[in-house]
Amino acid sequence: MQAEEKALTMALGPGARIWLNRTGAFLGLAGLVFVGIRLHGYASEIDFRRIGLGGYIAIAALAGLYGASNLLLAVGWRRLLAHLRVSVSHSWAIRAYAISQLAKYVPGNIFQFAGRQAIGVAAGIGNRPLAKSTAYELAFLAVGGALFSPLLLPLVAAGTSDWLGWISFAAVVAVALWLATAWGTDFGVAAIFYIAFLAFSGLVFAVAYDLAGGSGELSLYPAIASAYVLAWLAGFVTPGAPAGIGIREAVLLFLLGGLSSGPVILLAVVIGRMITVLGDLFFFAGGQIAGRYNQV
Questions:
Q1: What is the pLDDT of residues 208-253, one digit of tens each?
Q2: Of 54, 125, 150, 200, which is the most buried if we count CB atoms within 10 A?
Q3: Are 96 and 288 in contact (CB under 8 A)?
Q4: Among 286, 280, 236, 270, residue whose Cα is nearest residue 36
């Protein structure tokens, strides 16, 4: 079946391939426009007087690190394709992921997947394995996000020992990785990459929360990071919310309300959004560089 799908896709005429590529590129461009609009909106919401030079440098550095962390997603997706017996190069996977990823900012919350599907089909990959890889990725991200729930114990159950959350978190992650590996090595490795990305994203927000004037206690970083991951998950699974906008903020206000006031949490959200948007732009630019070595 894989060979038949590949042959059918390869049979597409040059015109069809060009239009598929243009569709993927258009969705990426649409995402770029929405990113620009979002950045402009964030600039008006931030009280720049509260952020010194060191804060700006930290935001830029965190954006660069977040952009680089998107490589975890691209490589994880490549592993999912490998599990489906589709072999692509690292550079192609990075480029396809980077171009399509910006489309998550387009209202609808699905266009990043549509763009990646179009780019993949244009490159000669069958529709079925591409669709399956998307379904697997959605499942990995949803389950991976839920795994961070135990680390929220210090926020939702006062007086709970930190070690209980850590032990519970380690246990559920170990079980999840064991189950994923049972489906194949590529599956297990992909799971590690997706969980690592979620953990890094949470830590980036914990630093943004600190920059906004929130709690600077390192012992609370895991709980704050987990609150972000759960808020991200809520936005991720909400249909129609571009990049979870609105949903994520509401969940963070609820989970972190016992630590800081609303304005501090919202400022942290705005800083965090700027970091992720800039990071996605950096990743997009890096994907263009990877495109110079583009080989499927």
A1: 998 888 766 777 889 999 999 998 888 777 655 444 456 777 788 8
A2: 125
A3: no
A4: 280
